[in-house]
């Protein structure tokens, strides 16, 4: 049974604004799952330009799961953006040297939120901003131009600045079952056979996929 090649950066012939970005990201601290795409009319291959303050000496990772849809202008702010906040001034004097390096903060004095982790089958809308260390659960939706400052539960919709819960997509029991099924971890042949059930809304049919 045919299916798109996850190793093809541009699976839609004649439509280069959509890119499977696992094929174009080179930073080892950005980890992208199969079939996750970035849509950008200007340069869909250069997704890394949307990941800010991602300094290698900090070591934080941006992890994005499989089958995610990332709209134009989605931005990820990483931990390198953070300034020391325990003292009276947040100004980074030390980075300019010339004697000012004597107030270089120790690593444990800088706010560190950990890795930013986006689950599977997540849709992030136009120009949304994801702040450092945020975890977005499987099946979640982030509305356009939202600023996400805290974790997002699986299969919920959030929007606004700061992003807040709009609604839960399905009842708790169905969400629990969807997370147990985790269809995105099936082999691609099984996914392809069962597309109608994956995009449908019959949880019993999805449970019985073979």
Summarize the structure.
By secondary structure, the chain is α/β, with parallel strands linked by helices.
Commentary on this structure:
The protein is an alpha/beta fold. It has two domains: 18-83 and 113-169, Hexapeptide repeat proteins (UDP N-Acetylglucosamine Acyltransferase, domain 1, 3 Solenoid); 170-210, no CATH class. Helices cover 12% and strands 20% of the residues. It has four helices and 15 strands. Strand 14 and strand 15 (164-168) form a beta hairpin. The longest helix is centred in the C-terminal third of the chain and has 10 residues, at 172-181.
- Count of all domains: 2
Average pLDDT taken over every residue = 95
User: What kind of sheet is the major sheet?
Assistant: 7 strands, mixed
Q: What fold name stands as the CATH topology of the largest domain?
A: UDP N-Acetylglucosamine Acyltransferase, domain 1
Q: How would you spell out the order of helices and strands? A: EEEEEEEEEEEEEEEHHHH
The order of strands across the largest sheet is: 1-3-6-9-12-14-15
Low-confidence stretches: none
Number of strands: 15
Shape assignment: globular
Q: Kindly state the percentage of residues in helix.
A: 10-25%
**What is the CATH-assigned architecture of the largest domain?**
3 Solenoid
How much of the sequence is in beta strands?
15-25%
Class inferred from helices and paired strands: alpha/beta
- What is the CATH superfamily of the largest domain? Hexapeptide repeat proteins
| The first-level CATH class name of the largest domain | Mainly Beta
Instruction: Please work out how many helical segments DSSP would assign.
Output: 4
Distance between the termini: 14 Å
Rg calc: 20 Å
């Amino acid at each position: 049974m045919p299916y798109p090649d996850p190793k093809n950066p541009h699976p839609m012939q004649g439509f280069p604004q959509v890119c499977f970005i696992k094929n174009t990201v080179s930073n080892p601290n950005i980890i992208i799952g199969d079939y996750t795409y970035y849509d950008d009319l200007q340069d869909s291959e250069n997704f890394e330009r949307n990941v800010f303050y991602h300094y290698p000496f900090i070591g934080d990772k941006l992890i994005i799961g499989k089958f995610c849809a990332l709209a134009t202008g989605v931005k990820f702010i990483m931990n390198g953006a953070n300034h020391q906040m325990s003292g009276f001034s947040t100004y980074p004097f030390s980075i300019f040297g010339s004697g000012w390096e004597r107030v270089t903060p120790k690593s444990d004095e800088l706010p560190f939120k950990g890795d930013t982790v986006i689950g599977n089958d997540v849709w992030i809308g136009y120009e949304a901003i994801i702040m450092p260390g945020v975890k977005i659960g499987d099946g979640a939706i982030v509305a356009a131009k939202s600023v996400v400052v805290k974790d997002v539960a699986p299969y919920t919709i959030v929007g606004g600045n700061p992003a807040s819960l709009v609604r839960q997509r399905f009842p708790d029991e169905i969400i629990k079952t969807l997370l147990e099924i985790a269809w995105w971890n099936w082999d691609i042949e099984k996914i392809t056979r069962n597309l109608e059930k994956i995009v449908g809304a019959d949880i019993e049919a999805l449970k019985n996929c073979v």
